[in-house]
């Protein structure tokens, strides 16, 4: 039940060059011109032949209706059946169950119209042929049980059972309904990439023009700042120890040059700078020295005194890189800077989309490369989850809309699903980017295939249970399902292939409302958190709770296993972020209070269970905040803000972070339907 009408996929019928399918002829000519240019004459002839016999008439519903009427006019039953079978395979099989029932009624009405037309044109032999050919299919359908007597009636148009079908009103209504159905489906089919390339090309050109305009503005501001500087202020040379951001990434082996060139090429593509320029390193900030040593310190001395980020990486002196702007230097304290620098700062270009915080050891672990917005949702976001490869994102809202989309380079919707009520649980099947699960407020769970755009299986709870949590195991075909209603809480494990109940964990252990679940690597343990402030560990082999302890006196909004599966991290609703040993259950590793109005003074809206996401290094975490997300670096002693990801107009509702590579990305979603995708670079 994958594709509801009006939401088959893509961005809808009114977006881009695909709107109205007015560009079909232009696309055909484009393909024809390419084949002619390449000399593929047999393929070109085959294309022309296929276009001539196109059953869908260039996706024009009016032409399809005309073709159906012509088949009826010639009493071509086999042609009508062949056309309907093509539409069924090509289009109607991709609809949800409720729309499929409407299609079935249209099919029945269409064949009844064929019989009526044969009677009206006085071809009784065609009526008898129809029932001889179709009797095997129709005899089991209740809609046709009265129609088998029609060939034996003298005046069927006067019979009370058949008279309505001979009216002009019924016939016109049937054809109009079929026309509207085809028009709506064609309007919502996802456009091919060939139809979208002009929009992408135009957007790239616009971005390039904007980048060039910003560079010109930056040059003009630097020139104006230089002219307005008082004569008493001497020109300050760039610090000698500004290093290239990516110098420390290159390995010491022979392929180092290739790696360095690749990274610099990657940075050039993003920033649009020349081959001889690079970004000023935010991670190479130096600890300030006494003023008496500023004049005598050399680049090599500064490098020796700076604290290395990792003991396994050695720093080698090399020529300083060209600076992009004075604003970059103003934002970074340098060992060779003087107090006069602060007296003439460069004016800011715009409000930044990120705000770096003073980080441990004066280093910034992440650099914000870009931010994009995804605005396809019209209501409060309930979940946003990366697939296992990080190539796709599934997001849902309280209106029951689920979007599958790609985050980079530009957010593009791949498919859309619509549920009957608010989506309250969502998770990807980790083994591929194809399947995912979602649960709703009215107690429905569906196992979906986003490639085929259909629901493969579903279960439904009749006792008004809300699906709270869905969590798929990493290496087996099982999933944990937590649900609740006014009288009881439920924690179960289901088989994903058959959607059958394997065991019910809440039978042996009384539980409260579950807020999050996670499996360990071999799917033999299930860790849950609840609104009673407790963490529970279930042994799935024994089907019993083997450990539980109180984390906080406030409800736990989210919990997660560490990547090495030695700790359990928990975040309570009042902002207490704590770590607990998995092997020595109940032993606290650390406990920190997040300093953000999101957990205190403001009134939050739309708080769901994905309130934090761990980075791949296991020492950084992204949390929701009052206007976006905040990245913290944490250890047993302290928790320090590293980077603020702004951009949301409301408080964040949920978040996620893809740890596939060093560039993130990470996402934050708001209670107003806005999703921000931030691409980061680990330094």
UniProtKB/TrEMBL annotation:
Residues 70-186 form the ARMC9 CTLH-like domain. SMART domains: WD40 (SM00320). This is WD repeat-containing protein 91. Belongs to the WD repeat WDR91 family. Keywords: Coiled coil, Endosome, WD repeat. Residues 306-316 have a biased composition (Basic residues). Residues 324-341 have a biased composition (Polar residues). The lineage of its organism: Eukaryota, Metazoa, Ecdysozoa, Arthropoda, Crustacea. Residues 275-357 are annotated as: Disordered. It is found in: Early endosome membrane; Late endosome membrane. It comes from Tigriopus californicus. It is a peripheral membrane protein. Residues 197-224 form a coiled coil. It comes from the Eukaryota. WD repeats lie at residues 374-405, 514-548. Gene3D superfamilies: YVTN repeat-like/Quinoprotein amine dehydrogenase.
